[in-house]
Amino acid sequence: MRLVFSVLYLILIALLILCAVLAWFSDKPARKAVAFLEAALIPPVFGNLLIVITGTRSVALLGCYFYYLGMDLVMGALVRFTDVYCRKSRDHSIVPLISYAALTIDALQMMLNPITGHAFTISEIEVEGMPYYKLIPFYGQTLHRVIDYAVFFSVILIFIIMTVRSPKIYRERYLVILATMIGVGLLQTYNIFFQYAIDRSMLGYGLFGVVIFFFALLYRPLRLLDRVLSNIVSELPDAFYVFDANGQCIWANDQGCKLADTADKRYDEISAKLKQMFGESSNVTQVSAKRQVGEGPDARYYLQEERYVKDAKGSVDGSYLRVQDVTAGEQQIGQIRQEAYRDSLTGVGSKAAYTKKVDQLINQIKNGLKDFAVVMVDMNNLKYINDDFGHEAGDLYIKGCCHLICDAYKHSPVFRIGGDEFVVILQGQDYERRAEITEELRSAYEKAFDSDKDPWLRYSAAVGLAEYSARENTYDLVFKRADHAMYAEKKMFKQEHGSYR
User: Fold this and answer.
1) Residues 409 and 403 sit within 8 Å (Cβ to Cβ)
2) Which residues contact 137 (CB under 8 A, 6 or more apart)?
3) Angle in degrees, CA 161, 167, 169, rounded to 5
4) CA dihedral defined by 57, 60, 66, 71, rounded to 10 degrees?
5) pLDDT tens digit string along 177-208?
6) Where in the chain is the domain with CATH 3.30.450.20?
7) Was domain 341-497 assigned CATH 3.30.70.270?
8) 8 Å CB contact between 9 and 48
9) Is 225-331 in CATH node 3.30.450.20?
10) How far apart are CA 282 and CA 321, in angstroms?
11) Are 332 and 358 contacting, i.e. CB atoms less than 8 angstroms apart?
12) What's the pTM?
């Protein structure tokens, strides 16, 4: 039995040294207090080791002083740890000072024992065939126990208060430390009353040091954190999925189940349904991607954010996927884009839409497009209408001129590229009848100009037509020829009519 306890004490001393070193180099706020407590537990354990292993009176007596003075050191370190670890509570601010004073007095009276003999002595008995020195306590030893118990119970009371007052996420660690202290105290009391030759309570104190190290510096309430995080994720408006290393869904929130059309938390069906909706999962380098499901006005858009969870060696343990429905935003962007491509006054294509169309046309020319033509239309008299009748009349004038263009070229896109300039790209049926339709448009403007309506309703415009030529092989040259033709016609109009009548 003595050999077993000696080995156990040696193991505890090694563990306490390791905990003290690790605590000192930790980055937690309580690291110094924990390291001091771990180191303070070593002398009483070492003292018990000397008592158990020796058969010599002087060595056993030295072990007793290591033990009892070490316990004062342990109580002081425990008070300091409690003050640091529970410093948010100010109800016990005077406890450290009283405790330190009482422990100092006790240590002094214990150190006087070799002179006065008032605290304790030891007597020889035989344990397992070897001399063993058992404690004979006097009133000084009683005082020592009273002081240490008082300090110990004050620390327990503080932890009871912290356990009750702390938020649920922190309550668990306070409760475990409290339960361990109570267990050690009961073991110490049991050993005193039954007066075992070998003090078994030091095993409890050694284990208590390991528990303090773990719960003060390393412990995280994972189960509670899991519940908290699960509740947070469940409340998200986005779909959220967790997958194992094989890509199999192992958890999803309610929104995720709804998106995958899965009821009763049948997570094993989700992976296949997501693949059916979005295609295969992205590779490990992919962080986010935008997906479209469906076509046309019924299309929905989703933003996927995927993260992979790796272990310390870099191996993938699993992944999680967040799917956000961004359909409303995409539709709004699409509407804004459409508005950007539509002239707000006339409803035809804007200059931005024209630029995009030209880029497409240039690519088509490179791929062999030959049958297209460009029509340039520039309104006459717009400046005079604005100056004499106001911009509202000018806007009516622009709309009227544009209406005649759209009515003539029913199958081709019309663009307003300036205040009074329009461009039409002729393809298909309009291209086949380009000359005939263009003459019809000129006739429509002449008829409107010769009417008896108010001046801003006598629509007039110059029209220029140019066809693509393989010899030129570029859109810009076609546009310039149409522009020149239009200005030549405009010049003739001014020579014949001047301003509006």
Assistant:
1) no
2) 119, 120
3) 120
4) -120
5) 888 888 888 877 877 776 656 667 778 888 88
6) 225-331
7) yes
8) yes
9) yes
10) 11
11) no
12) 0.50
